[in-house]
Structures are given as structure tokens and as C-alpha cells.
Design brief:
This is Zinc transporter 7. It is found in: Cell membrane; Membrane. InterPro entries: ZIP, Zn/Fe_permease_fun/pln. GO terms for molecular function: zinc ion transmembrane transporter activity. The chain is mostly helical. The protein has one domain (2-99, 172-327). 71% of the residues lie in helices and 8% in strands. The chain contains eight helices and three strands. It has helices at 2-17, 29-58, 73-119, 163-197, 201-229, 233-257, 266-296, 305-324, and strands spanning 126-134, 137-147, 153-158. A three-stranded antiparallel β-sheet has the order 1-2-3, with helices on one face. A hairpin with a 5-residue loop joins strand 2 (137-147) and strand 3. The radius of gyration is 25 Å and the shape is globular. It starts with a helix and ends in a 5-residue tail after the last helix.
């Protein structure tokens, strides 16, 4: 349990601790390659591990043939989970964008009122900077007051160019980090419970090594998304801590339930299979859409050709490395 906890803390903490360091800053070559590797790990987790575990649980001979073995429920449930994640992704993104537009409109109205009030009393040229906090970002709005000697007043509200695109990227980073954590935490609980109820040392030892590797790179992907979202320190620490303790907590709960928990009971198999399928759908969607497509097809891969090749190699290595762990876990 300690090895898994330490791996999770190191994985999620490294991008957060390195936000101020050039070598592991978001956008650096090291960070891009490591995040691509982590995206490959998450993709393989969904396809090779979670979906396979769901099929194994829902095709168990202990379950009645109808309906569980007469219909491909694992793939069907994973598909529904991926589509539901898409809907949630869109709705949450629109919520944050609507909230942002309302804040900008309010700030513009307040700034216009302040300019009108200031124009009646100001006689010297001055520039006031109004700072508004939006989605944990500080956005400066410059109010420029021009006063001629003839007391003619020109007022202009200036907003930095490109701000809309930056805010849109920030909103996406916030949404991706929250949904990715939901998907990772959901399957971490299942993995922890499965490991906790296991009583075979021969099974547990290779599982611990595989899960430590798995936790580190899943944590790195999540930590990178949290760092890109630029959460406040307290929010970032809370999200990172929640991820790090989930699997160890599941292991502890599984150990407590092991005396009376029957992993081969029909109810346990159905619950495990459905949850594994849901987790697979979420992770596959997040890996393909919000991690791989967003970085590789969304214009963010703007570095040198060498850096791009490194990112692709890291992506494939991550997927292959995590897939190879299916031999033991």
C-alpha cells in the first residue's frame, strides 16, 4: 500500500511542483513527452485493462446465461459511458464559458460606470488598472482616460488581444482535469478493492509493482492537467491528495471486507463488470479526445519536429508499456 501511495504522490506532485521550473513547466519538451507517455498509459488502461476486466467479470460462469452472456454488455456500457462523458464535457464547458461571459459583462458595466463618474471630476490624464478574478485567473482591464486642455474627454475600455482564446483554453483545462480525475478515481477504487480482497501473495506482489507504475503515470497526466488549469494551491493540493489516497483507501476497504466478501457472487460480478465498463469508457474518451487529440491535433504541438517525434514515441511507449503489464495484472 505504501509503494502505491508514494507512486501516486510522486506522479501527481511532479508537474505541480515543477510549475515554476523550466525543465518540467507545462509546454517544455520534457513535460510534453511525459504527458504523451501518460496519455498512452491511460488509453491502454481503458482498452487493455478495464475493458478486459469487465468482460471477464460479466462472462463469468457464476452468472446466469441470460442476459449477461447473450449480449456484449462491457462494450455497450463503455460506449454509453463515453457518450455520457462527452455530454458532461460539453455541458460543463458551456457552464464555465457562460459564467466567464457574465463576469466580463459585469466588469465592463462597472468599468463604464466608473469612467463616467471619473470624467466629471478628473482633470488630469490618468490610467487606472482594474483587475478582475475570473475562474481563478486575474485578468487586467485597462481604463484609459484622455483629457485635453479644452476639457474634452475620450474614454476607451481596452482588453488584451487574444484573451478569449486564452480563456477558452483555461476553461478546457479546468473541465478536462475534473472529468479526468473522476474517471481515474472511479477505477482506482475498483482496483484497490480487488487488491484488498486478494489473499494470494503470489498474486499481490506483481500487482503492486504494476499498480505503482500505473499510479505514477496516471498521476502525472492528472497533475499536468491540474497544472495547466492553474488552480489555486489549495484546490490543486486537494485534487492531488484525493487522487493519491483513493487506491490505498480502496485496498484498506477491501482488506476489511475480505473476511465476508465473495468476489464470485453474481451481485459482486455484475457490479464489478458494470463499474469496470464505465471506467473504461471514461478513460478511453478522456485519453483520445481530451489528452491525445487536444495536444496532437489541436495546434498545441508547436515545438520542433524533434520534439513532436519524441511526443509520438512517448505516446506509443506509454501505451505499449501499460499493455505489457496485463501479463501480471
Amino acid at each position: 500500500m505504501a509503494a502505491i501511495l508514494v507512486s501516486g504522490v510522486m506522479g501527481v506532485g511532479l508537474p505541480l511542483a515543477g510549475r515554476k521550473r523550466r525543465t518540467v513547466q507545462t509546454g517544455s519538451a520534457v513535460f510534453v513527452a511525459a504527458k504523451a507517455f501518460a496519455a498512452g498509459v491511460i488509453l491502454a488502461t481503458g482498452f487493455v485493462h478495464m475493458l478486459h476486466d469487465a468482460e471477464h467479470a460479466l462472462s463469468n460462469p457464476c452468472l446466469p446465461a441470460g442476459p449477461w452472456r447473450r449480449f456484449p454488455f462491457p462494450g455497450f456500457v463503455a460506449m454509453l459511458a463515453a457518450l455520457a462523458t462527452l455530454v458532461l464535457d460539453v455541458l460543463v464547458t458551456r457552464f464555465y464559458e457562460t459564467k466567464h461571459r457574465a463576469e466580463v459583462a459585469r466588469v465592463k458595466a462597472d468599468a463604464a460606470a466608473a469612467l463616467a463618474a471619473a470624467s466629471t471630476s478628473a482633470s488630469d490624464e490618468d490610467i487606472t488598472v482594474v483587475t478582475v478574478v475570473e475562474s481563478e485567473h486575474k485578468v487586467p482591464l485597462l481604463q484609459a482616460h484622455s483629457h485635453s486642455h479644452a476639457q474634452s474627454h475620450g474614454h476607451e475600455l481596452m482588453q488584451p488581444q487574444g484573451r478569449e482564446g486564452e480563456v477558452s483554453d483555461h476553461v478546457r483545462s479546468v473541465v478536462v482535469s475534473q472529468i479526468l480525475e473522476m474517471g481515474i478515481v472511479s477505477h482506482s477504487v475498483i482496483i484497490g478493492l480487488s487488491l484488498g480482497v486478494s489473499r494470494s501473495p503470489c498474486t499481490i506482489r506483481p500487482l503492486v509493482a504494476a499498480l505503482s507504475f500505473h499510479q505514477f503515470f496516471e498521476g502525472f497526466a492528472l497533475g499536468g492537467c491540474i497544472a495547466q488549469a492553474q488552480f489555486k494551491n489549495l484546490s490543486a493540493v486537494m485534487m492531488a491528495s484525493f487522487f493519491a489516497i483513493t487506491t490505498p483507501t480502496g485496498i484498506a476497504a477491501g482488506a476489511g471486507l475480505s473476511s465476508f466478501y465473495n468476489a464470485n457472487s453474481p451481485r459482486a460480478l455484475v457490479v464489478e463488470g458494470i463499474l469496470d465498463s464505465v471506467s473504461a469508457g471514461i478513460l478511453i474518451y478522456m485519453a483520445l479526445v481530451d489528452l491525445i487529440a487536444a495536444d496532437f491535433l489541436g495546434g498545441k504541438m508547436t515545438g520542433s519536429p524533434r520534439q513532436q517525434v519524441m511526443a509520438y514515441v512517448a505516446l506509443f511507449l506509454g501505451a505499449l508499456s501499460m499493455s505489457s503489464l496485463a501479463v501480471w495484472a
